[in-house]
C-alpha cells in the first residue's frame, strides 16, 4: 500500500507537470504581450520626447501594469522590470521575471515550488528630430469646413506632440502657414519686402531666386533682375493678424491657439503657401525666425523634414514685379487706336482662370519640386471629390510619391488623412 501511495503521487505529479508547465507558458505569453505593448508605448514617447532614466522607469511600469492587471502578477513582475537604452542606435531592451507557483510539481517536495518565467523584448525608438511645416488653405471656399480642418490639425498635433510634452523635451517642431492670396507675416512683412509692404501681407518673389530658398534678402549680381523689394506685399487680402505665420515650435499651446484662430477668406495663391512653408524649414532663413524656431541643416543625419500641403481648390492668383503690359489704346490726337506697351512698375496682383497649367499652379509645382530636391518629404492633401481638378492634380504632383498623396472626399476623410499622415511620420522615424 505505501508503494502504491508513492506511485500514485508520482503519477499525479508527472501528469500534473503538464498542467504546471502549461500555466507557466500561458502566463509567459500574456506577459510577453503586455511587455511588448508597454515597450511600444514607451518607444512612441521616446520618439517624440527626451526622457530621463527615472521617467522611463515610471512610464514603463505604468504601461506594463495597465496590461497585466488580470494576471495577478502585477507587483512581482513590475518590481523585476529592467531596461537598457542604446541611444546611439535607438534601441531599448526590456525584461522581467516572475515566479509562477506550481500545483503539482511541488507535491511531496518532489519538484520546485515555482517555475521562473523570463520575458524579454527589444524595440526601436527614434533617434531623430522632426521639423514639419503645415501649409493650410484658408481661402473663402473653406468657409464651411474650417472646423474640420481645425479638428484634423489638432489630431495630428496630439500624435506628434502629445499632451503634457514639455517644449524643451520635444523632438518634434511644427510650423503653421495659413494661406489665401498671401501669407500674414506680421511685422516681418516690412523686413522681407524691404519696406514695401503696406501691411502684414507678403506674396512671392521673382527673378533668379524665385524657385529657391535663398535668404529673403538675396540680391542677384544683376540688380536689374529684381528691385530692392525682395518679396511682394501686393495683396490686401491675406489671412488676418490672428493667423500670422507660426514658425517652428514645440509649444502645444501656441500651436493650438494658432489652429483655433483659423478662419476663411480670399482667393488661392497656393504657390505662396508652399514657398513660405518651405522657408520655415530652410536653414537659409535662420536670420528671420526666432532662435528657438531656427530650422536645422539639410545634411543633419539626425533630423527629418516634412511638409503637409492641404487645399480644397484650384490656384487663381499670382504676383509679378514691373510687368510689361501691352494693348490697344485710343490716341485722341490721331483719332485712332494704337497698339503700345508700357511697364507697370511695382508689384501687381493677377487673377486667372483655375487651371493645372495656369501661372500660379505652374509656380506651385516648381516650388514643390525644389523643396523635394532638398530632401523634404512632402504630403499633398486635396479636399474635394473631383479627381481631375487642377487642385487634385497639383497636390498629387507636389507629393513626394503616390503614398504621400491623399484625396479626402468628406470631412471624415480629411480628419483621417491628417491622422494617417501623423502615424506615417511616426513610423518613418521609428523605422529609420
TrEMBL record:
SUPFAM superfamilies: vWA-like (SSF53300). Signal peptide: none annotated. InterPro entries: Tad_N, VWF_A, vWFA_dom_sf. Residues 131-425 form the VWFA domain. It comes from the Bacteria. This is Pilus assembly protein TadG.
Amino acid at each position: 500500500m505505501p508503494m502504491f501511495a508513492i506511485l500514485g503521487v508520482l503519477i499525479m505529479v508527472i501528469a500534473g507537470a503538464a498542467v504546471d508547465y502549461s500555466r507557466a507558458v500561458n502566463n509567459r505569453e500574456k506577459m510577453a504581450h503586455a511587455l511588448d505593448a508597454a515597450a511600444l508605448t514607451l518607444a512612441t514617447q521616446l520618439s517624440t520626447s527626451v526622457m530621463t532614466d527615472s521617467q522611463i522607469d515610471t512610464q514603463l511600469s505604468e504601461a506594463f501594469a495597465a496590461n497585466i492587471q488580470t494576471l495577478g502578477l502585477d507587483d512581482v513582475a513590475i518590481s523585476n522590470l529592467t531596461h537598457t537604452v542604446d541611444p546611439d542606435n535607438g534601441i531599448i531592451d526590456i525584461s522581467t521575471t516572475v515566479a509562477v507557483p506550481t500545483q503539482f510539481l511541488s507535491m511531496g517536495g518532489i519538484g520546485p515550488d515555482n517555475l521562473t518565467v523570463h520575458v524579454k523584448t527589444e524595440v526601436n525608438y527614434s533617434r531623430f528630430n522632426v521639423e514639419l511645416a503645415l501649409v493650410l488653405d484658408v481661402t473663402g471656399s473653406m468657409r464651411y469646413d474650417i472646423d474640420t480642418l481645425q479638428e484634423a490639425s489638432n489630431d495630428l498635433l496630439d500624435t506628434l506632440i502629445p499632451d503634457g510634452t514639455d517644449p524643451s523635451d520635444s523632438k518634434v517642431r511644427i510650423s503653421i502657414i495659413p494661406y489665401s492670396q498671401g501669407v500674414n507675416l506680421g511685422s516681418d512683412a516690412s523686413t522681407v519686402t524691404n519696406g514695401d509692404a503696406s501691411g502684414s501681407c507678403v506674396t512671392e518673389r521673382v527673378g533668379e531666386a524665385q524657385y529657391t530658398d535663398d535668404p529673403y534678402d538675396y540680391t542677384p549680381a544683376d540688380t536689374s533682375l529684381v528691385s530692392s523689394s525682395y518679396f511682394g506685399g501686393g495683396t490686401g487680402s491675406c489671412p488676418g493678424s490672428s493667423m500670422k505665420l507660426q514658425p517652428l515650435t514645440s509649444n502645444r499651446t501656441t500651436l493650438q491657439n494658432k489652429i483655433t484662430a483659423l478662419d476663411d477668406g480670399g482667393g488661392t495663391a497656393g504657390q505662396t503657401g508652399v514657398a513660405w512653408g518651405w522657408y520655415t524649414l530652410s536653414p537659409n532663413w535662420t536670420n528671420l525666425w526666432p532662435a528657438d524656431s531656427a530650422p536645422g541643416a539639410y545634411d543633419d543625419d539626425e533630423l527629418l523634414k516634412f511638409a503637409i500641403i492641404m487645399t480644397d481648390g484650384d490656384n487663381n492668383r499670382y504676383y509679378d514685379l514691373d510687368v510689361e503690359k501691352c494693348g490697344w489704346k485710343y490716341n485722341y490726337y490721331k483719332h485712332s487706336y494704337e497698339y503700345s506697351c508700357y511697364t507697370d512698375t511695382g508689384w501687381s496682383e493677377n487673377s486667372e482662370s483655375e487651371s493645372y497649367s495656369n501661372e500660379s499652379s505652374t509656380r506651385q509645382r516648381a516650388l514643390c519640386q525644389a523643396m523635394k530636391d532638398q530632401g523634404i518629404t512632402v504630403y499633398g492633401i486635396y479636399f474635394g471629390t473631383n479627381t481631375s481638378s487642377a487642385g487634385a492634380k497639383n497636390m498629387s504632383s507636389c507629393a513626394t510619391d503616390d503614398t504621400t498623396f491623399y484625396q479626402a472626399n468628406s470631412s471624415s476623410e480629411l480628419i483621417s488623412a491628417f491622422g494617417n499622415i501623423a502615424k506615417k511620420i511616426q513610423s518613418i522615424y521609428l523605422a529609420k
